[in-house]
Amino acid sequence: MKNPKSAFRLETRSKRAIRNPKSVIDIDYVAKLANLPLTSSEKKTFEKQLKDVLGYVSKLQKVDTRKVEPIGHITGLVNVLREDKTRPSISQQEALANAPKTHNGFFEVDAIFEEE
Amino acid sequence: MKVDVTELTIKSASDLLAKKQIKAKELTEAFLKRAYGLNKKLNCYITISADVAQKQAEKVDKLIADNQPVGPTLGIPIAVKDMFTTRGIKTTAASRVLENYMPVYDATVISRLKEANTIFIGKTNQDAWAHGASGENSDFGPTKNPYDLIRVPGGSSSGSAAALAASTCLAATGTDTGGSIRQPAAFCNLVGLKPTYGRVSRYGIIAMASSLDAIGHFTKTVYDNALILSATAGPDSFDATCVQGAASDYTQGIHGGVKGLKIGLPREYYENLDEKIKKTILTAVKKLEGLGAKIEEVSLPHTEYGVATYYIIQPSEVSANLARYDGIRFGRDRSKFGAEAKRRIILGTYALSAGYYDAFYLKAMKVRRLIREDFLKVFRGVDVTICPTSPTLPFCLGQKVNDPLAMYLSDIYTVTANLVGVPSLNIPCGFIGHLPVGMQIIGPDFSEKLLYQVGYAYEQETKWYERKPSLA
């Protein structure tokens, strides 16, 4: 973390979340992270509903997990390997078949950088 | 030959086909006709794939005419949840985001069902992205319960359960991340399996929550259920979380009975249970005791944390899996997500965001281990446990749509099997009034055969599957 101030912010945020997970979600910030367009009425409804859900799940804080390892693969599979060999796959034409916009055999996307 | 298709099971239909008393084409046409007719009433299919079904049936008739070896699911009409990627058949996950998506490959389970020469009647309705416990989160309208049209069939595999209960097919596929097969099976008087995590390949199935997703199916009888698992289970090089080990015949040992088996009743699952549902399940347990099983009370002390753990892990993984829908390679853009998907994306993104990961996801994955340890401990003392599938009977359409938390609590008895990874089988265990009740038989990792053995013994005594919905 380059900026000590933002590291501090993260830490206090985490502590706040552990102390009081009922604290309101910053919907605009989270929607931006998720790249999810929301209407203002959706934001209002979700804010209330998610507060209820967070209030409910906060009961986990009562469980003592200091000596507990988090679950990995549930039945315990580790390091599943296979031979590094090419296999037949779908064609370029098939890969592009569902794309709304293509150009010379590529997916076409809207411009990402804006002109100055 | 005149056959009442509502009376058929996979086993009896397979016998008729093998003895050449009916053609696959006739059987398929009869089920397609019912599917078209009843879909207007139930809204259980998003796509009816008549062209595909007819071609598959012609192929089956040719195999039978050529006296080729007849497999146990050859020519059997199946409905497929719209979470399963099917080459050349539209696959929507019941979401507007994928309303025009035409896959160019098959899910592993679909390839295997094709190899087994089953026949695809259509793709079934569901809660969009499998988010829900009622079917009402579908972007293509809710499905109705064939036993009572004003009630929900359960969810998220709502259409699969309704399509089978209405006898428009002889089996239906489903996905179960927190109860999405078992709860609709309970609401629609069906046998529904959530296999052990990794028993059935997830490749090509639209991912909901990858550490919880189990791929299973609905049938009318326990024996039929074992037949389908024998076709779908087994390792897959396309899914590294799928367990190794050769394919197996899950009907083997199904007649073994329950004499001497120890069945545990987890105290926490019966404490606040609706009295009528409790009585129905305990009557079923008595029946198993009468057949020679030993019944004892057991305890799963972390039960009360199941739903809370689940509603952190699941939306977190949902938000990661739904991040891929960008409208560039296939499907529409992110504005087309419905309300429930948006709610879960927001919740999950929040729980995984910097500063919150330890408090939510990591914490939940630790509690998850404690819940699993409860089960491992109990299975050192008993062979299987029996508990309710749903805290309520099928509820009315609209009853819970505006209260997400109330809807999430519908999963209270089912989410633990997903968190723990163990297999669980819903078995019909009676009716309260005109509404079906189901119970879960849960066993240790990879104990599907044992679950079938217990379920089969009970089913032979009761045959609840004979009680059909009255659909004129």
Automatic annotation (TrEMBL), chain B:
Residues spanning the signal sequence: none
Tell me which UniProt keywords the record has, alphabetically.
ATP-binding, Ligase, Nucleotide-binding, Protein biosynthesis
List the Gene Ontology MF annotations in alphabetical order. ATP binding; glutaminyl-tRNA synthase (glutamine-hydrolyzing) activity
* EC numbers, comma separated: 6.3.5.7
Per its UniProt entry, what is the enzyme's top EC class, as one word? ligase
Task: Provide GO CC annotations from the record.
Answer: glutamyl-tRNA(Gln) amidotransferase complex
Q: Which InterPro entries match?
A: Amidase (IPR000120), Amidase_CS (IPR020556), Amidase_dom (IPR023631), AS_sf (IPR036928), GatA (IPR004412)
Q: Which residues are annotated as active site?
A: K81 (charge relay system), S156 (charge relay system), S180 (acyl-ester intermediate)
Note whether ATP-binding occurs among the keywords. yes
Transmembrane segments annotated in the record for this chain? none
| Pfam families xrefs | Amidase
Spell out the Gene3D superfamilies in the cross-references. Amidase signature (AS) domain
Homology family: Belongs to the amidase family. GatA subfamily.
Q: How does it assemble?
A: Heterotrimer of A, B and C subunits.
- Role played: Allows the formation of correctly charged Gln-tRNA(Gln) through the transamidation of misacylated Glu-tRNA(Gln) in organisms which lack glutaminyl-tRNA synthetase. The reaction takes place in the presence of glutamine and ATP through an activated gamma-phospho-Glu-tRNA(Gln).
Know the name of this protein? Glutamyl-tRNA(Gln) amidotransferase subunit A
Q: Which organism is it from?
A: Candidatus Curtissbacteria bacterium RIFCSPLOWO2_01_FULL_42_50
